[in-house]
Amino acid sequence: MTTAVVICPGRGTYNAAELGYLSRHFPDAALLADFDAQREAAGQDTLTALDGAERFAMGKHTRGDNASGLIFAASYGDFLSIDSEGIEVVAVTGNSMGWYTTLACGGALSAEDGFRVANTMGTLMQAALIGGQAIYPWMGEDWVADMARKAELLALIAEIGAREEAELYLSIDLGGMLVVAGDETGLKAFEERVEPVQGRFPMRLGNHAAFHTPMQEPVAAQGRAALPRELFGQPALPLVDGHGRIWWPGASDTAALYDYTLGAQVTQSYSLTRALTVAAREFAPDLFIIAGPGTTLGGAVAQSLITANWRGMASKADFRARQHEQPLLVAMGMAEQRSLATG
Amino acid sequence: MANDRVTIVHENFRRRVAAQDFPQGAPPSGPLDDVTAASVFRTACLTRAMDRESRRMQAAGQGYYTIGPSGHEGMAAVAAALRPSDPAFLHYRDAAFQLQRAEQVPGQTAAWDMLLSYACSSEDPISGGRHKVLGSKALSIPPQTSTIASHLPKAVGAAYSLGLAKRCPPEHKAMPDDAIVYCSFGDASVNHSTAQGAFNTAQWTSYQHVPLPLLFVCEDNGIGISTKTPRGWVKASFEHRPGLKYFECDGLDIYDTFRVAQEAAEYVRTRRKPAFLHVRTIRLYGHAGADVALAYLPRQEVEAEEAQDPLLHMARQLAEAEVLEPAEALAIYDGEAQRVERIAQEAVTRPRLENAQQVMASLVPPPRECAPTNGPDPATRAEVFGPDMKAMEKPQPMGKIINMALTDLMLDHEEIVMMGEDIGRKGGNYGITQRLSSRFGRARVIDTLLDEQAILGLAIGMAQNGFIPLPEIQFLAYLHNAEDQLRGEAATLPFFSDGQFTNPMVVRISGLGYQKGFGGHFHNDNSIAVLRDIPGLILACPSNGRDAAMMLRECVRLAREEQRLVVFLEPIALYPMRDLHEAGDGGWMTTYPAPGETIALGEVGVAGDGEDLAIVTFANGAYLASQALPLLAEKGVNARVIDIRWLSPLPTEGIVAALKSCKAALVVDETRRTGGVAEALMALLEENTDLPHARLTAEDSFIPTGPAYAATMPSRDSIVDAALTLAGGAK
């Protein structure tokens, strides 16, 4: 039996190429109907409609109230599609809103309640849209970890964040990249201070708010008001959260899990890097499977494993060589890799 | 084969749980909630899997440590009853404690870390691959090795530090104010004199209502390697001790253990008094991998013990509490075993230490940032010194000047604390600490009980909470019963923690010979070999007041900023020394050097500029050699005295530079011929110079009392004779 850690992606992974993902891959029509019913009841477009749209509309599909539901459903559907006879999932983790999907995949939330949590939080985030996010790499294109460079950037974020007129925080520690979040003054100050690299960075993330920062306190409070504690139960699989904490089946304090999910998870930095370091070192799986749409998380996952020096990998070349020899990372959103997970 | 028992216990567990054939025991009751109980069980399974894996790794030549935690898994319930910020000085069988504590701190990779430690990988986050230790900076667990009970005195010190740190927080305070200190050990170790000293110190302290929030935990598996602990001995010995409240629980019953541990911790935390928690455990698989219990225990007894496997008791209780079905318990047990096996496969591929340089990288801890101190304002300083301000203007003997230097250092750095026998009210046997208690209070100048292990343990523990202790050992001969606290504990802490834990301090020791007819051996000990071969330890020894003040300042800087372990050896006979050549000449007194003047580590002193001969010496030797200089000059030999000041590590460069243009070198060493400083100095001269050299040392003897007090050691006249012989030969 192959062992695997499943990784659920965050926002920004359902783009033009993913249009129709649910119709292509979602394995449980009744469940999708349930998700659609929840959205209809809330006066939102159904996932089926969004996913079946003729054209991808940036302004529409990437909004939090739409993207969260789409990404959750696409990822959860993929999780259900994993070949359970050949692959033993030993832990689940996720990036950012992927944590809500993680909770559902791991059984701490039912599929329906997981969707409710993801959709509610995405909708609340979009309605409030407090602040924004930008992304900037600390690794070069060779993916060699330069920890001094990372420390420099973290110090810069702290320095700008300490200014009275600006808000700036580390939002996500995302493998070889840092996602920063703050208000316009803070983000601008950051963008002005860092050198433009790779023709794209620093890059603003459209329709994203200052997730995982104290600026989201009001959204977290609304989330707690909208979502009851009783939704949360014991996970059936170990979950690794954005602080790198493992929530074990049968041994998780569900009240604490609720508090984290709708508290610190929303208002404090999220570390995919730490989550994957813990997942690798504490579960040592044969495979890391990225469920869900998109191809953008693979780099961050590989970079996280390189940062942890997992299986001796120290660069992109190392990762490629290992991947070539025997895939360590499988992205279900990539057609050529999907079958490695679905059997 | 010892490992057969590992397989037998494993198979017994799987078979008996599947058959629901459980050992009898108390039903689950008490405050342990379902979630924590399940977590404790998972930790216990992980711990067992780790132990089994460590033996497989050793058999495969990939692991190097097999003193296992099996039978002690119930300690996870004790960890669950404490806070992860409570400093824990752990017994070497406490893997379960550490693994459960890791559950309380997000982001830990406890299984990976421990397997790296078994593999002695240089990536092991606590020791850097130097030793399999339990320990973690993030989990407030300073590393401990297998030394018997030697960690107890410092646990007492750490517990004592909490109260003072709350009132006067040191810059590098490491422990929360409401912490309790946890210290565990086995039932055989409780008999060790070091342990008994620590219990006594804790009781002595608590008896006089001084706060000491310390939880001693004895994990009583009934046997120490092959020698059984008499049945009931631990309880009989500890149940009614003054100042030490006794708790007991059954470590095979996690509900009982959690309840009692919680009560004991609550008692210690709220009352700030020490307690002794006696936990019944069992020992599976013998003492260590190579130890076969069947060689000294009847088979029935081994099997009876195995039948009480704590994991079986846990599975029974969790089923009774409806937390886990036996099948679920078995799935967790198997799941953890598989997980550990997968992690281990990766851990054994990680790099190991390869050379001496890598091994030695953490002998010297890293420097740390310290806030600059401006010292007190002049008025405050003048008030504290009082009439001594005037005394500073005139030459004084060394004893008085050390007192002044200590006063200034304590004024400059509030984190300095002193502890020793009679140092407070009395001001020390030789008055060196006079008035320090009234100047700085009894909390900073602590009159200890008469136990050198307790004094050094107090210092080590306080240093781990950010203080800069200046413990005093009244006489060098008294160090020897306690030297392991420096050798095995203080000096090794940075080494075994890869520089993450440190205990910087300056140990002041009065020693060496030449007290006129007073005291004999025990007050004039002239053996320092025991201090010179401790890696990382700095040994300083001044010969006069001015040097003493400036070197002491450097020693405190080395401790405070570079986190070094320093011993400052004060030659007793020179404390009151006033004259050099004749009565009333005041030739050996100096004025007090202004604050800020220091002598750097490795800087030697040179008196005279003669080139015929250099006398390489220290302490009383420097004094006697200085007396000899004019007598030698009269005989046509122009000499100089090189006071090496730093006895370990030896200041090679400084000595060689000071020898420049000299024609010969005479080593004068008041320590013994065998194992004395001269041996190293002769080697140094041989390896680094072409000079003719000779040595004059003390005889391999103890020091007598009475008129022959100096008969075995170098004298002014014997120095003159030896110098003339060498210089004559050299000319």
Give the structural class of chain A: alpha/beta
Strand content of chain A: 5-15%
Helical fraction of chain B equals 40-55%
Give a count of the beta strands of chain A, DSSP E runs of length 2 or more. 11
Order of helices and strands of chain A: EHHHHHEHHEHEEHEHEEHEHEHHEH
3D shape of chain A: globular
Q: Mean pLDDT score of chain A, rounded?
A: 96
Summarize the structure.
The complex is a heterodimer of chains A (343) and B (731). Chain A has 343 residues and is an alpha/beta fold.
Could you characterize the architecture of this molecule?
The complex is a heterodimer of chains A (343) and B (731). Helices cover 47% and strands 15% of the residues of chain A. With 343 residues, chain A is α/β, with parallel strands linked by helices. In chain B, the strands form 5 sheets. Chain B has a 7-stranded mixed β-sheet, sandwiched between helices. Chain B has a 5-stranded parallel β-sheet with strand order 1-4-5-9-8, sandwiched between helices. The mean pLDDT of chain B is 96. The chains are: A alpha/beta (343), B alpha/beta (731). Chains A and B meet through helix 12 of A and helix 2, helix 5 and helix 12 of B.
Topology:
The complex is a heterodimer of chains A (343) and B (731).
Chain A: E1 2-8, H1 21-25, H2 29-41, H3 47-51, H4 58-61, H5 64-81, E2 87-94, H6 98-105, H7 111-128, E3 132-137, H8 147-161, E4 168-174, E5 177-182, H9 184-193, E6 203-205, H10 217-226, E7 239-240, E8 246-247, H11 254-267, E9 270-271, H12 272-283, E10 287-290, H13 297-307, H14 316-325, E11 329-331, H15 335-342
Parallel strand pairs in A: 1-2, 1-10, 2-7, 4-9, 10-11
Antiparallel strand pairs in A: 3-5, 3-6, 4-5, 7-8
Helix pairs in contact in A: 2-7, 5-6, 5-7, 6-7, 7-10, 8-9, 10-11, 12-13
Chain B: H1 2-18, H2 34-59, H3 75-80, E1 88-89, H4 95-102, H5 110-118, E2 134-136, E3 141-144, H6 152-167, E4 181-186, H7 193-207, E5 214-220, E6 223-224, E7 227-228, H8 233-238, E8 245-250, H9 254-271, E9 275-280, H10 299-306, H11 310-320, H12 326-347, H13 356-360, H14 378-385, H15 388-391, H16 398-412, E10 416-420, H17 436-440, E11 445-447, H18 452-463, E12 468-473, H19 476-479, H20 484-490, H21 492-496, E13 505-511, H22 529-532, E14 537-540, H23 545-562, E15 565-571, E16 605-607, E17 613-617, H24 619-634, E18 639-643, E19 646-648, H25 652-658, E20 665-672, H26 677-688, E21 693-698, H27 716-730
Parallel strand pairs in B: 1-4, 4-5, 5-9, 8-9, 10-11, 10-12, 12-13, 13-15, 14-15, 17-18, 17-20, 20-21
Antiparallel strand pairs in B: 2-3, 6-7, 14-19, 16-18
Helix pairs in contact in B: 2-4, 2-5, 2-11, 2-12, 5-12, 6-7, 6-18, 16-23, 18-20, 24-27
